[in-house]
Amino acid sequence: MPRADEAVIPPPCRTFDIQTLLFLLAAAIFLYAFLFVPPFIPIDYNIDGLTLVTDGKRMYEGQMMYRDFFQFMTPGTVLVYFFLFKLFGHRIWIPHLALLFLGLGLAWLGVVIARKLVRPGLALLPSAIFLAGVYKNRLDPTHHWYSLLTALAAIAALVERRTPARIAAAGFFCGLTAWFTQTRGLAAVMGFCVFLWWESRQRREGRREWLKQEAWLVGGFLATLIALNAYFVWKAGLARFLWCTVIFGIKYYPKTPDNTFGVVTSTVPPFTSLRVFLFNFIPWLFLYGVIPFTHLLFFVRYRRESGKKPTDFWVRPMLLAIVGSFMFVSVAPSPSLNRMFSNALPGVILLIWFIDSPSKVPRALAAGLVAGVLLLVPHAVLSAQSKVRQIVTTRPGILLATDPWEGEVLVWMREHTRPAEYLYAPSSSGAQGVYFYMDLRNPTPLPFIQNNGYTPPQQVAEVIHALEQNPVRYILWSTLDLDSIPDWEDPSDDHLGPLQDYLHAHYKVAKVFRNSDAIWEKKN
């Protein structure tokens, strides 16, 4: 019987079987415990993805993305929420239900891919580690998870065979990935191109055959990307579409410290106590150290051992390593926790491939990981369900707020505003949730603004013009965002002066909340 680390191809297995179905059922229960309190009350985590949910609501109300309001992402995620609003109406559980099914889809694809690389007994472990140690820590209905789902679908399409149909399907899924996150989609298709080149060289295929494969891949990618974005290019204009989705990301997006490489140091957990520090530092080290190092270690191993094993031994893990590495490169300029979380699953699968061996040390590592997951899951579920939260009755339904300050803002909004009323909440923090939870409307093209160069002068002018055209009774703006420029910023990048002057001339402070968010009420 061959050793596990010498097996060329794992035995074929069905995509769905009773083991996989039971695992997905357990995963659904696990995710439910973090997203809802029985029977169906959503738990709010005050996260960034609500901006995209709110944009979907704006389209549901008749506005057109890029033309009527600004968004620097490609339209995929916003359209998902638009269609969910069209299907169900304005329901408070929509982003939570989306996160539940996203998690299940990611877990299932993780199993599908892992079964092509490791023994059946370890095939569930990567997805279990991902759900328990990664996904539950970032339950954010953002574009990162959607683009990871489609990138994994592209890997699953090619991991077994590289026929023209499968290569074209991978190109299609890469196009979908770019439809959700443009940089990840581009990185993924580049990774697949490199993999097809590598495999062609290893199998000594002719240049013509390799070019045909690349044409199927790139053709599927471009056809999908053009078809999915054509409507918005038509409605907003090509120049506007490219300014929002390309030029802004290059010129203004890096102005925020969280969108630079320096975010790595700011994400290091602070030391309060040894227990709390280790509890937070271990996941941080796993994301920023273990997973990227696993990709690097694979290439080192391949360089040392490529002549000792047949090509078929390396093909599947090489596909995962190359595409996963390109995905990491796409977030390297700004490796925030959100982006690192959403790149982790390919690396986790590759890590389990490394320890899929009958040797004592790898078997001990695998057993330790299994034991860790089994111990973490019940503890995490009990902690999630036992946390103290504030019950807030919002307009689309009951919500459990994890942040008492956010609950205070929502209650005030419920008592002082009417449904569909205009409100401007330009802070980049959790203020974005008031649009969705209180059924309020943003009168301006911008979801939020910043005083660090992220918001250029022309966008500030657009906000002022919109406020003059659509009088707003209340503005929710953090006093910290309004009056101070962070020490690390260049004062010349602060373009909010005209808007601050407009605010002081036409509004007065009516309420300051404990988190420094302030209600500015229109004078007279």
Report low-confidence residues grouped into runs of 5 or more: 1-8, 484-488
User: Could you give a short account of the major beta sheet?
Assistant: 4 strands, mixed
The helix/strand order is HEEHHHHHHHHHHHHHHHEEHEHHEHHEE
Helical content band: 55-70%
Classification by helices and strands: alpha/beta
> Strand arrangement, largest sheet?
1-2-4-3
Mean pLDDT: 88
Query: What is the CA-based Rg, rounded?
Result: 24 Å
Number of self-contained structural domains: 2
| Quantity of strands, as a count | 8
Q: What is the terminal separation in angstroms?
A: 86 Å
Number of helices: 21
Shape designation: globular
Assembly context of the chains: single chain
Q: What proportion strand?
A: 5-15%
In short:
With 524 residues, the protein is α/β, with parallel strands linked by helices. Helices cover 60% and strands 6% of the residues.
Secondary-structure blueprint:
Elements lengths: L17 H18 E2 L3 E4 L5 H11 L15 H13 L5 H21 L10 H9 L9 H16 L5 H17 L1 H21 L4 H30 L1 H14 L11 H4 L7 H32 L5 H21 L5 H5 L2 H11 L5 H27 L3 E4 L4 E4 L2 H13 L6 E2 L8 H5 L19 H13 L4 E5 H5 L13 H10 E6 L4 E6 L2
Parallel strand pairs: 2-4, 5-6
Antiparallel strand pairs: 1-2, 3-4, 6-8, 7-8
Helix pairs in contact: 1-4, 2-3, 4-5, 4-6, 4-15, 5-15, 5-16, 6-7, 7-8, 7-9, 8-9, 8-13, 9-10, 12-13, 12-15, 13-15
